[in-house]
Amino acid sequence: MAKAMLNDVTKCIGCRGCQVACKEWHDLPAEKTTNWGTYENPPDLSADTWTKIIFKEYGNDGTLRWLFMKEQCMHCTDAGCVNVCPSGALQRHPTLGFVTYERHKCTGCGYCVEFCPFDIPRMDRESDKLLGTGLMGGKCDFCFDRVSNGLEPACAKVCPTGAIKFGEWEDLVIEGKQRVQVLKETHPDANLYGEQELGGLHMLYVLDEKPEVYDLPVDPQMPVAATALNVGRWTGVGLGLLAGAGMFGAAMLARARMVERKKEEESAES
Amino acid sequence: MKKQFARYDVDTVCSITGTSKDVYLKVCEAYAATGKPDKSATIIYAMGTTQHTNAAQMIRSYSVLQLLLGNVGVAGGGINAARGQSNVQGSTDHCVLYHILPGYLKTPNPDDVDLKAYLEHYTPTTSDPLSANWWQNYDKYIISLLKAWYDDAAVASNDFAYEYLPKVDGDHSHIALAEAIENGVVRGLISPGHNTAVSGPNVSLERAGLDKLDWLVVCDLWETETAAHWKRPGVDPSQIGTEVFLLPAKASMEKEGSITNSGRWSQWRYKCCDGPDMARSDLWIVPELIKKLKELYAMEGGEYPAPILNLTCDYGDPPDVHKVAKEINGYDLETGELLPSFTKLKNDGTTSSGNWLYCASYTEDGNMAARRDPTQTPEQANTGLYPNWAWCWPVNRRIIYNRASVDLDGNPFNPDKPVISWHPLREQWEGDVPDGGWPPMSQEGTRLPFIMTSEGRGHIFATGGALKDGPMPEHYEPWESPVDNLLSGTQNDPAVTIWKSLVKGDVSKYPIVATTYRLSEHWNAGQMTRNLPWLVELMPEMFVEVSEELAAEKGIKNGEKVIVESARGKIEAVAVVTKRFSTYSINGRKVHHIGMPWHLGYMGLAKGDSANMLTPNIGDANTTIPEYKAFLCDIRAK
C-alpha cells in the first residue's frame, strides 16, 4: 500500500520542471534570487521551496560529469520530525507511508529542523498566527492531496525523462534494484539509496555514485532525543517532562537560531 | 570528393577543432561502423550547426556522410534538425521566411515576368526516365495556392492572379532588414512575437535602427524590449519619434491550432485557457488588419489595390481556425469537398490548396492532425512508428526517402528493422507510406527513390548552384577567429555578405572565442518567460561561463561580476566558473572560450545585458542566419 517516489539521478537532465511544478501546485511564491555562480537556484530549501535540484560538477578532464539530484523530504518510515512535532502538523500517513505537513497546524517551534537527519525542513516564513513563534515552515508534503485522489505528485507528473517515478514502494524498490544492476556495468558504485535507511525512505534514489558524492548521509540515524520523545508520547506523558533537559535545550536552541536568522534577514533587507 | 576530403586528415582536423585525437578517432570509428545494412545512425543538430557563416555546408556534410553510410530512409537514420522553438517546422512550411511561399514554392523574382516564365524557371526537368522528378507538378501546386489566396479573382486568363504575388529582389532576411531600417529604406515595421531588440545580432545597432522607424507594431504577451526601445537605458525618449503600437497577444496555450514538430508531425492543440481580456490571437489580429486595409483601399484607392482587395480572408467572426486548416488542405472547387491528397491537385484552377504539402491533413474524414490513436502494426511498433497519431507531411509518410531502405527487390536492408517492405504476393508495400508507391526497382514501371531530386538520386554534392559557396562542403573559419584557416588561404566563407555596418574585432584585442546559447528556463528573447516569477527564480540574471584556467588567469571569481567586450559592445554578467569549459589547443595555440545565454534584456522581471550586444551582424552564406555561435571577445573582472 505504501507509496514512494524513485529519483533515478542518471535520467535527470536538470530542467527543473519539478521545482516549478511543485511551486505551481502548492501555490508557493517565487524567491528573489541572484546568480551565485551556478545554475542551481534557489540556493537552499526554504518554507517556500520544498524541492530543488542540486547541480554538481564531478570528476575532471575526460571524466567530468554534471550530476543532478532532486533534494527534498525523504519521507522516512522512522521519521524523527513526526516524533518531535508537538502540534501534529507533521504526520506519517498511516497507509500511504509518507510524511505529510499541514502548514495551518504548524506553530513554528522548529523541532523538526533540528531533528531531521537529512537537514530538510526550514522554518523561515512569517506566520500570521498569534500563537507560536511567529514563523512557519515548509517541506515536501508528497502532494498528499493529489496522491490521496489517485494522482501522482506534481513533480513526477511533469518530469519529462522519467527521472522521477511514483508508485508502490515495493515495486519501485524492485525497479530501482534492476536499474542499479544495469548501471553497475558502467558505474561500479551504483546503488539504491533508501531501502534500508530509517526503516525505508519513501523517496528512493538510484545513484550512479556513492551516496557521499551526492552529499547523502551514509547510514542516517534518528536522533536519540527524537526516539525518546516518541517513547514519551506512547506512554502518554507530557512533552516537557519526558523529553528531558537535552531535548528541551535542543529545541530552544533551534528556536533561538531561527529567531537569529530572521533578525539577520530583516537587517539585511533594511 | 575523395580528393577534396583527403585534405581533412586526422591530424589536420584535430588541429583545427582542438578535439583530442583519440576521442575524435573513437567517434569516427563508432560512426563509420554504421555503414552496414543492419546498422544505422542519426545526426541530430540544432543552432550549434546552423548559426555559422558556413552552416549550410556543414549540414551538407552530414548529408554526404549519411548517404555514403546508407543511413538515409532507414530506421534510426536520417538527419534530424532539433528546433529552437516548437513550431519552427510549421512556420517554415507555411512560409515565415521571405524567399519561399507555402510548401517551399519559390517567391518570384522580377525576372519571372509571368506565370509561364515563373514555371519554366522553377519546374525541374529530367532526362532520366526512371526519375519521378516530383517537382514536375510545380504548376499544380502554385496554381492551387493562388486559387486558395485569390479564389474567383484567379482565372486562367489572368495567369491565376500570378501578378499579385510580390516579386522579391535580393536579400530581405533579418540582417538585411535591420540594414534597410538603419538606412531609412524601411519606415514601418510589424513585429509579431519577434523581440528583435534582444534577438538580433549586433543588437545595439538594431535598437538604434528602431528609433528611426516612423511606426512600429508589436504583438506580444508583455511589453518587450522591442516595444519599449524608445525608453531603453541610455536614450532620451523625447528624441525618438517612433509611434509604437503594442497589441496584447495570446500565448500558444490560449488558442487552438496546430504546431508541426521537426519530424514533420502536424499536431492539433487545444486552448487551455482564455488569456487576459484584451489579448487577441494572431488569427484575430491579421484578418482584422486585412479587413481594415481592404476598407481603406476601397475608400481611398492607392497603389495597386487588387492584391489586397481580392485576397480571400473569410474565416468568420471570430475567425475559425478550422476554416484556415481546411483552406491549407485545399478543396475540389467543383464539388466543394476537401481533397484527400495532393495527387488530386490540378493546374486548371479547379482545385485549391494553401499548402500542397499539407493536402491530406484535413479531409472529408476529419482533422488528421487531431488524431490520437496509438495503434500500430507489429512492424510499425518495431520501428516506433505511430501512423495514426497526429499527421505527418507528406501524405502521412513518417520516414522520407524510405525506399532507400530496401534492396532492388523491395526487401529491407535490415530485416530486423524494416521501415517498408514489398509484399510480392499482395504486390504492395507494407509498413510506412512508401516514398513513391511504385513497385521495387527490379520491376517494370518503377521510379528511383529520391523523388524530389530531378535525378532521382541522393545528392552527395549540391547541383545546379543550389549552394552559393560550392557543390562540396569546405571548412572556413568563423568570420572572427583567433586562428588562420589551416586548410586553405581563404579564411572565411567567400560567399557571405559583408554588411556596411559590420565591425570586425582584432584578435590582438579580443583573443577569446565566445558562443551564445539558450537555457531551458527561458524562451528565446525571453518575452514569454522573463515575466514568470517561478522561471525567473531559477535563472534570474545574465551570466557568462568561464573555465577555471581562464578565471585564474584573469583573476575572476565565481559568482562575481565581470565585463565581456567585443568589437560591437560590452556587457556586464555574473561569472560562472566551471569545469564544463576548458581551454582548447588549436593548431598548437592555447585558445580560451566562454559561453553565455542570450535571453536577457532591459524589460521584464529578469533583466540583464543582452549577449547580442556582442555578436556580429553577419550571416550564413546561404541561409543568412547570424553567426551567433562563434565570435571574438575579451573578459575581465569588474
Structural features:
heterodimer; A: about 270 residues; alpha+beta; Alpha-Beta Plaits; two-stranded antiparallel ribbon; 8 helices; about 20% strand; globular; B: about 650 residues; alpha/beta; Rossmann fold; Barwin-like endoglucanases; six-stranded mixed sheet; 17 helices; 22 strands; about 15% strand
Q: How does this model look, in words?
A:
With 270 residues, chain A is of the alpha+beta class. Chain A has a single domain, classed as Alpha-Beta Plaits. Chain A has helices at 17-26, 80-84, 111-115, 144-147, 154-158, 169-184, 224-234, 239-269; strands at residues 3-8, 52-58, 65-71, 90-92, 99-101, 122-126, 135-138, 164-168, 191-193, 203-207. In chain A, the strands form 4 sheets. In chain A, strands 8-1-10-9 form a 4-stranded mixed beta sheet. A two-stranded antiparallel sheet of chain A has the order 2-3. In chain A, strands 4-5 form a two-stranded antiparallel ribbon. In chain A, a hairpin with a 6-residue loop joins strand 4 and strand 5 (99-101). Chain A is globular. Chain A starts with a strand and ends with a helix. The model of chain A is unreliable at 231-246 (pLDDT under 50). Chain B is of the alpha/beta class. Among the domains of chain B are: 1-82 and 459-483, no CATH class; 174-306, Rossmann fold (3-Layer(aba) Sandwich), CATH 3.40.50.740; 512-637, Barwin-like endoglucanases, CATH 2.40.40.20. Helix content of chain B is 22%, strand content 15%. Chain B contains 17 helices and 22 strands. In chain B, the strands form 8 sheets. Chain B has a 6-stranded mixed beta sheet with strand order 16-18-17-22-15-21. In chain B, strands 5-6-7 form a 3-stranded parallel beta sheet, with no helix packed on it. Chain B has a 3-stranded antiparallel beta sheet with strand order 8-9-12. At the A-B interface, helix 1 of A face helix 16 and strand 18 of B.
